[in-house]
Amino acid sequence: MRDVAVVSFAQTKNVRRENRRNEVEMLIPVVQEAVEKSGIPKQEIGFYCSGSSDYLAGQSFSFVMAVDSLGAWPPIAESHVEMDGAWALYEAWIKIQCGEADSALIFSFGRSSPGMIRETLTLQLDPYTLAPLGADPVCLAALQARALLESSDYSEREMAEVAARSRADAKSNPYAQLTGDFDVDELLAEPYFVSPLRKHDCPPISDGATAMVIAADDVARNASKRPAWIRGIDHRVESHQLGLRDLAQSTSTALAGEKAGAVDIDVAELHAPFSHQELILRDALKLGDGVKINPSGGALAANSVMVAGLTRIGEAANAIWNGNARRALGHATSGPCLQQNLVCVLEGE
Amino acid sequence: MSEEKQPVKSIVTPSRLEYDFTPGIATTRFLRHMQEGRIVGQRCTKCAKVYIPARGSCPRCGVATEEEVEVGPNGTVTTFCVVRVPSENIDLTLPYTAAHILLDGADIPFFALIQECDAADVRMGMRVEAVWAPEAEWGPTFENIRYFRPIDEPDVPFEDFKEHL
Amino acid sequence: MSDDQSAAILSAPHALEYAYKRSVGPVLGRFFTELRDHKIVGSRTSDGRVLVPPMEYDPSTGSGVDEIVSVGPAGRVTSWCWVSDPLRNHPLDRPFAFALIRLDGADTAMLHAVDAGDPSKMSTGMRVVPRWCDDPKGSILDLACFEPEEGR
User: Fold this and answer.
1) Chains touching chain A at 3 or more Cβ pairs under 8 angstroms?
2) Which of residues 60-79 of C touch A (CB under 8 A)?
3) Of the candidates A45, B22, C103, C115, which lies 20 to 30 Å from A328 by C-alpha distance?
4) What ipTM was assigned to the predicted interfaces of this complex?
5) Hey, where are the domains in chain B?
6) Do B61 and A42 touch (CB under 8 A)?
7) At A22, which CATH number?
8) In angstroms, rounded to a whole number, what is the distance separating the alpha carbons of residues A244 and A81?
């Protein structure tokens, strides 16, 4: 296995509505920033891979226009996943492991604001027995939250504490969207949104874009003073049928974490768009009280769909670069109720 | 199982997504110029190519484009095709000619219709001009230009436009 | 062009609309055919588990499942949420519950709506029965929703 490291990461400020710039205009500055910070000349980047969704853009093959932000001349080796950028990272990592490139630029983008994100994501469900019911991600997450509350010692108070802590920590993250100090008792006094979830248990609707450069071996060592080495990366998926799964446990995250070697973690950036999901993921990864979770604020502070997972890995790398972690974990999720999960373990030397 | 009815073999799953679509800063500026009857592209600071329609980026260099350059009003047909089959959303008499038009001053051609001309007379290198809708109908849309028609100018030699094919 | 005009955001409504006609295959085809006749079926795996809705393949072993069995019609709620503000694509246009419902005889739960009227009428473990639609077409919505068994 080659040693591959994250050497740079850049992101737009996540906002409720980016209706001036289109996706390419959002991407150009973050792609340029990631390339400049990487220390690798652009023409030497061996592979480009993006994560995004046509359903957000309202246009088929919408990711093709994003190539305009890359300067694809001479022709580049490029790929795309119709998923969160974290899976584009995985593809790029594989490409490098296969020896087909020594460095890669990964980017992701998504504007949830033009459409109705709850309706849009309903279309990811089984078209025969689930999508016709219009069961959107908030309702499905609420089912999962109740399953957790009724099968564990967790309470709505602990969910509110996750929400309050996330938004308070997000105050120091210039890229976060929903930040501030919230009193847990006041949060719990709010009415239910889709019970047992309240509004604060749910993520904001966000538009954003990110870019990241990874590199192997000496390319990484020459490019970065403190490469964030990818010591393990793995992803697993559970059944699509909700009734087949134990929604209160994330068996796929546990397995992905085990395969990625998720031990001795100082900082964990967990992609938990709903507050109760952080509790489930923490347990699945066996993260103890000494682990700092989501210093960036996590997905409860900014949740650009298709972007928030790669952002967690980028923020895990940030924790290593700013000296707050020797080993950090970035997690990404996809599908309803944490159906599919990716765990990436990073280490600074 | 009922014996009178056939077993279910398929289901129809309608889906509809609605968007409040915004095209971005560069396209907005381009369409507002169209509303004034002007075709305005953008030039790349690195390679100096002029792109039309303006999209805010140079796809070769990957840099943001800002400088505006008015192009046209006339152009050259770089390639074309003659369409003889009907299409659901296209309300045109057959055959009709679709072409790539390289406007004077632009470095990339774009797709447009050729009318007021026999399909047999269209040729690569042919000089054309835009035919606009009545000014009172202009909006922020490329549809202000209805089509292109030939003008009485000598054809452009192949050598002079071949790199734009 | 004035600065105000050039700064103003251009926007337009845009709709993507598709109606796909999807072939259902023999297993789901049977499920929908039975639904049209106001009956619910599941598929049984080789180790005896009954999956509802039926699946073509055993999710644990991957082998084909070809035994179809009747389940329900009543069942038990295993989890639920209260939708106080339904979206336009939801099955009901008044407040309702989405629930995972394990039908009698099934080993897995299916997702559907429960027209309970009030969240105080919902609880995990409660029994529910189907309410059928008047004009079944062979789709999941032939089951208009479920309702509490108690008080029926």
Assistant:
1) B, C
2) 78-79
3) A45
4) 0.94
5) 25-164
6) no
7) 3.40.47.10
8) 27
